Amino acid sequence: MEDEDLSRSEEDDPSVEAWLEEDDYDSSAEYVHVKEDLKRLNKDSTLKDAEAFIKNHPDALMGIEDEYGNKHVPLHRAIRYRAPDEVILLLLKACPQAAAAKEDLHSGYKVLHLAIVKMYSEEVIAALLNAHPGAASERIPHTGNLPLHAAVNKNLSEGIILLLFNAYPQAAGEEMTKERRLIFEILLQRKASDDLMREICKVRVRVDGLLPLGVVLTKRSSDDIVMAVLKAYPEAAGKPFSTNCDECILPLHIACEDEHSEPVKDALRRAYPKATEKENPFETNHELHKFLEKESFDPQGRDVVELIEKYPEAAGKRGRDGRLPLHIAIDRIAHPRVTIPLFEAYRQAGKERMKDGRLPIEVFLEQKVTVGWRQGDLFDMVLYLLKNDMPVSIEDGTPVEHSSSWHACISYSTKTATDAVRKVLLDSEKKWDDGSGDRGGGFGKHIHALADARDAKGRTALGLASKELLEVIYDYLLFCGRYKLHIGPPEHRTATSVVLRAQDLGEQADYGVIFDHADKDGNKKLDKEEVSELVVSKIGLDPGLFLKGSDAISKEEFIGICKRQLGDGPREVVIKLMKNEDQWERECNARKDYELDPNYVVSALPNVPSDTEIANAVGNGKGGLDIIREEHLNGIEVGKHAFVMDAGDRNMLQMFNQEKPTLDTMRVMLRQVFEAVKHMHEMKLMHGDIKMLNVVRFRIDNKLRLIDLDASATIMSAGEEDVNKTFAGVKFSSAILPPEMIERIVTEGQLEKFKKYWESENDEDLKEKVAPKPYQEPGKLKAHYVVKTFRTEGGKPVDKGLLPYRLVRASESIDLWSLGVLAFTLFTGETLIPSTRDDDCASGAAMHLLHSWGTQPEVMSELFNKITDDAARDLVMQLLKLKPTERPPIATLLKEHYFFNQEGLVNANQFNERLKDFGESLERQTKQLEIMNANILVIKKLSYESQSELLRTRHVLLKGIFEATEVKTPTTFIILNNKLPPAADPSDEEAKNKILEIVANEDGSGISMKTKYGSLAATAEGVDINLEGDLKEHYDRVQDGIKWAKAIKDIGMNVFAGDIDKAFETIKDGIQDLIVGDEMYLYLIDELTGEPVRAEGWPIVITTPSDLVPKLLPLMQLGMRGLSFCSGTLGLVRMFGYPAPKVPKALSKGAQESVELLKQESSVEGFSVVHDEVKRGSEEKKSVRGASLREFVDFLEEKDPGLKDGKTGHFAGLQRIGDPDQGTALWTVLTDQSAIESALKKRANEREEEERKLSAASNGHNQMTAKTEKESEGLGRGEISEEDGRLPVGTTASSNERNRSMAKASVVTADEINVSNDSRNLVVDSEEMSKLIKAAVTATAAAKEAAAAATAAAKEAESTSACCAIM
User: How far apart, in Å, are the Cα atoms of 1353 and each of 40, 925, 972, 1239, 1347?
Assistant: First the structure.
């Protein structure tokens, strides 16, 4: 029983000695030296030999290759040549990894294998197992035995056998390869110890799950052997006979069934007395098994139903061989009269694999009709089994546990499999066409889930389907038989169209075949003419992609380009389904009638299904269309007119939201969009609907292109007219239209005329879209607004003379305005006009704002100043000119505007140098003026401070009375998406200050930070932050505060545009992006420390945030406003869990704008529409804040742990105290009086500091400019810039360019201009002060003359530097 390959003497192994004894071995000296030392590792080697080898050749311990590529491992050689134990242990200690190495010379033996065959000691075997335990489960080459088997064969000690058994117990349950015996049988013969036999007899045989006791009972071994095995492990008498049979079958039952001797039965009863109490399954349930197994079994099964009725549980019980009754019947080719009742009695049997590993359905799919069978019998059985084991739920299509019967069935191509799949997919409302009246299984509605379902090996059903079954699946899976729709929300949807993403499985083209068909002259190349014809008609790509720098292209090059551009799999496309036939024809004709370059406008794909095929596919709803309708379209009708295009990577809106482009990236994006629109204008075509959703990026070249031409119209020259094509507005998105496209209706006659024109329109969605929007001013309806649109029939305008307005001719200027709206949104992240998700004006107020454009300079100034970059701001201002004729052509903007031509700005430095001397002269003249300003401001400040203090005292008294009588609960709180981390130890200064480790860049370009906590870089272009750990959490807290404060402003704009009665609905829409989960957390704020309170039972979990949070937001704003007044930016971010003692400038800059939103006069000024009404005390408007307060009080009474249980300790431990500085009630967890006084003092100081900042900002903003004649003249021409260098409202681009550098070098501040005007109204007792004031007037006049001189110098410079772009 030895392993022959390893038992022979390795000293005689020629393959070893040939290398070791070679004298002429041609190798490096290193290998020669190793070879000599390696020869010493043999039975005569000593520890010194091993130590020398380890010292001299440490790199050779894992093995060294001879000239034949054979690997020699020193540890292997030492064991093979039977080196002493101490040598083996030393080599193993020096290189434990060698225990896992294989020796190539001897077919990959591991050292453990060699050590067992060489019969090494238990100590060596244990050391080898410790170094590489996995060797115990690796079979020995040639013999296939496991190490435990080899040890038993070699009759090694029980200690070694136990070591190997414990390392891999499963080896005891596997037969030895040559002997076909289990090791317990050999050990019984050798009379192994009881301890060893007990361990061995615990392991079940791998194949049939029997314990050794079950093995000897099944083999009907002698009583002595059975008794010996039972003695070794008596607990086996109480264990299930086999893992493959029912648990109720015990060894005693087998002994009785197989008629073992009474001593054996008695021994089994003594070992497990409870066995006699258990019912013998062979006397009950297994009567069914006996019936199915007997030789005289009738496959027609006339008695099987009676047995099932007699033993109802028998169908679910396994016999002694592990088979279920259904499996036995299938093996015996029983008739459906047998198998169907067995299946109905225990359906799980249909999902469990049979003994040969097949599923029951596979047996029937492979089975042929036999005597007494009908083809229908096979079909019925397959259908039963298939419906019983589908991978998805019939109710909702969600995955369920299955055994892959579906995958098995669709992999066959038989008629039985095909019919079964057809019937299981058929709509449950439809009848099967076999005349039986049976209805379909109804699984077809879940075809996408079925196609993607995976079997146990991870393979998809679609990948396993046979050709015949693939056709059946595609009939349900694919739209129009070729498009696999993406089941989910559509790419875009409007009232008139739906855009769906899909894979075109019918367009997996063989590019080689396409090339061959196009190669008409057979020269193996395609020339320009052949390529142009081919790619337009067959592929739909730009011909320019194929011929770059050459006149022809080879087949290999052609195939490579096609695969790079379109991929090697299904083509990604979008299908635009349009309801309006006129719009669809306009889209098609725009591409057919104009030679639009696919580099700028996405082309329609060739070779698509016909209009009839599209209409039929929409009608039957296959391909997942019905699922999309039901789950994602909310009743929107799907049109039957289709337009198929290549799918873009992302649209511009997705790029903006997900990629956060920088200003430079925006510049590239806008240039590409402008160039695409310029191309359309050159083709005399107006796009008519330019917005972010209609600009897409393609992965093939990373360029932006235009889509959706259903609003396009022909641009006619003066005197030309085409009544069918020339008018704008036939299809629109009103929020991106220019003012000239909006009509104000003020009379009932006009309104009735408009309504009558549209009353015959059948499309209710379109009628709702064009319906007049009322505009109201307080208490009165002022007007209605409409878009100057019109109806069409057959593509022609209908009765345009019946409209109350004249239609607007298509022009470039309409697209220019839309480009301005797009650029504004890109630069600011806000819409220019409050709009809906379809980019229509949200209300009549929004349309009024658009129609009255240019009449409210303050509104325009506020909007334009949201754009921080001067060049970007000027670009938008040029595009959004009120008069269409003043909007510059796209070609001019691309060529000349400095937003697109930043390289020209370097020349501005040369011009600035010419003004430097003039600026220094002006500075000297104004020094005396600065001294006067300082003196006057001191006097004014004393007066203002006295007046302010009196007013504040009155305010404090009134507020204190209200707080004392009305404030019963805390009202300062925050709502977060995530719980805050535990509060830092107040003494942990490192935790508080680590976010402040920010330094300035040496070149002054910004600030940066790089520590173990993360990195931050801030420049004029923005802030790039990469944070880690709790530092990231601190930064996220700051950003949460900024997001909530900014949301208040955005909500205000939307409320302004809508109905005040729907304020809470508007608030809900405004913060939907901040509510990202099903739970949010409300923290009360300590109003002294400004920090969230962490207490038992707090925060309170809000489980319906989308309903509750909008109602609490107005009250939450009050708390945010109060803390921002007292502590500025730090007060806001501290509320959101920011732990540091101050806010770094890089983060403070981002939060400052949000803080300023909160510091406005009215408590609800963030919602600007209600501001004036609150100041006048309107009850309607006050109800917004009052309702929020009532909602919050009710919420606390229900959720506060203390209040709802009627216990103390409510409000998270907050106690009310008085603030003597402001007359308010403050809530704090502080109890120590000294700590409270200290906190109050700190709060007062912070408030005073914030008030000083506000006062300084207010003075700089509100002072009026002097009204001297020269100043008025200069300002009227826009020749004096504001202090921050921005262009005054109404200033032309040319004046901006002339004076940009001059404004930076020689600004005349508002304070300087105002001195003379203030001096006329100021009464001063001091004669000396009067002289100083007169001197200031003189200095001011001199400064004005200097400013005029600066203007003249700028004009002169412009004439000599006309090409210079000035910021």
Answer: 99, 18, 57, 58, 10
Q: Which H/E stretch holds residue 1022?
A: strand 1022-1027
Structure token pair of residue 709? 């031409």
d(CA 170, CA 203): 7
Question: What would the two tokens of residue 312 be?
Answer: 């109802």
Q: Which residue carries 């022809």 as its tokens?
A: 552
Using only the alpha carbons of the chain, give its radius of gyration: 44
- pLDDT given for residue 1271 in this prediction: 39
User: Cα separation of 1021 and 1001, whole Å?
Assistant: 14
Q: Helix/strand/coil (H, E, C) string of 640-681?
A: CEEEEEECCCEEHHHHHHHHCCCHHHHHHHHHHHHHHHHHHH
Q: Which residues contact 1000 (CB under 8 A, 6 or more apart)?
A: 1006, 1007
Dihedral over Cα of 77, 80, 84, 90: its sign? positive
DSSP string, 486-553: --SS-SEE-SSEEEEEEEEGGG---HHHHHHHH-TT-SSEEEHHHHHHHIIIII---GGGT-SSSSEE
Q: What pLDDT, on the 0 to 100 scale, is given for residue 288? A: 78
Type of residue numbered 1031: L
Q: What is the pLDDT of residues 1081-1112, one digit of tens each?
A: 899 998 888 889 888 888 988 888 878 888 88
Given CA atoms 1176, 1179, 1181, 1183 in this order, what sign does their dihedral have? positive
- How far apart, in whole angstroms, are the C-alpha atoms of residue 473 and residue 467? 10
Contacts 24+ apart (CB under 8 A), 514-517: 514/538, 514/539, 515/555, 515/558, 515/559, 516/555
Concatenating the DSSP letter of every residue in 1274-1304 gives HHHTT-S--TTSPPPTT--HHHHHHHHHHHH
Q: How many Cα atoms within 13 Å fall on the side-chain side of residue 169?
A: 10
Q: Report residue 1356 CA to chain centroid gap.
A: 57
Query: How many C-alpha atoms does 1308 have within 13 Å on its Cβ side?
Result: 28
From CA 287, how far away is CA 304, in angstroms rounded?
11
- Return the number of other C-beta atoms located less than 10 Å from residue 657's C-beta: 12
Q: What's the pLDDT score for residue 1335?
A: 52
Query: CB atoms < 10 A from the CB of 1338, how many?
Result: 13
Concatenated DSSP letters of 917-967: HHHHHHHHHTHHHHHHHHHHHHHHHHHHHHHHHHHHHHHHHHHHHHHHHH-
**Cα(1034)–Cα(1140) distance, integer angstroms:** 9
**Which one is predicted more confidently, 519 or 1336?**
519
Q: Which residues have CB under 8 Å from 1247's CB, separation 6+?
A: 1125, 1126, 1127, 1221, 1222
Q: Look up residue 949 and give its two tokens.
A: 């203090």
User: What's phi and psi for 777, nearest 5 deg?
Assistant: -110, 160
Q: What is the pLDDT of residues 827-856, one digit of tens each?
A: 999 999 999 988 999 999 999 999 999 888
- What φ, ψ does residue 356 adopt, rounded to 5°? -85, 5
**Coil, strand, or helix at residue 103?**
strand
Query: What's the rounded Cα separation, in Å, for the pair 138 and 1127?
Result: 71
Q: Within 10 A of 459 (CB to CB), how many other CB atoms are there?
A: 14
User: Is the per-residue pLDDT at 693 higher than 80?
Assistant: yes
**Token representation of residue 302:** 């006339």
Cβ atoms 704, 672 nearer than 8 A:
yes
The burial of 930, by beta-carbon neighbours within 10 Å (0-12 exposed, 13-18 middle, 19 or more buried), is given as middle
Confidence of residue 550 (pLDDT cuts 50, 70, 90): confident
Give 210-233 pLDDT, tens digit per residue. 889 888 888 888 888 889 999 989
- pTM (predicted TM-score): 0.47
Going by C-alpha positions, the residue among 56, 106, 48 that lies closest to residue 81 is: 106
The pLDDT of residue 978 is 81
572: left (phi over 0), alpha (psi -120 to 50) or beta: beta
- What is the pairing mode between strands 695-698 and 650-651? antiparallel
